[in-house]
Amino acid sequence: MLEISVPSRGVLRLEYLVLDVNGTVALDGQLVPGVSERLDRLSSTLEPWLVSADTQGTLMSLAAPLKAKVKRLQPGDEAAQKAALVEELGAERVVAIGNGANDAAMLRRATLGIAVAGNEGLAIACLIAADVVAPNIEAALDLLLHPRRLVATLRT
User: What is the mean pLDDT of the chain?
Assistant: First the structure.
């Protein structure tokens, strides 16, 4: 568990890290460099989940070397399926990271939502739903590895 005390917001008790795949941790079907090492370090405090409709057809090969659980979405209403996974895990214990319009609902439901403005871009709906915006997935994961950065951003 990762506990982060944020003045005026309270203590975030995070157990799960739900990650969109395409456009967030992977680009054109390839894992973004640096993601594997960061997820390995985070796996001692958070249980990572990769969630994807597998548009590129590479979900299982991307997930194989990672210490992460995988949720392959069924075609149709992927946004609702992502949000449902956050609810199933216990939204108050989830940090979610994504970049697309279909990630907005999961970011909104999670106790902490991080939007990533990577090479695929960042959907406005996702931006509005997020608590924090990071320039790339490496920076987003680094926020969890260095929680005082999150505190500085989230405190009011």
Answer: 94
CA dist., res. 17 & res. 28, Å (int): 22
Distance CA 50, CA 25 (A): 9
76 φψ region: left (φ > 0), alpha (ψ -120 to 50), beta (else):
left
Cβ contact 3:13 at 8 Å: yes
Please name which of 148, 51, 154 lies closest in space to residue 105, comparing C-alpha atoms.
51
Separation between Cα atoms, residue 69 and residue 11, nearest integer Å: 26
pTM over 0.85: yes
| Both structure tokens of 109 | 């439901």
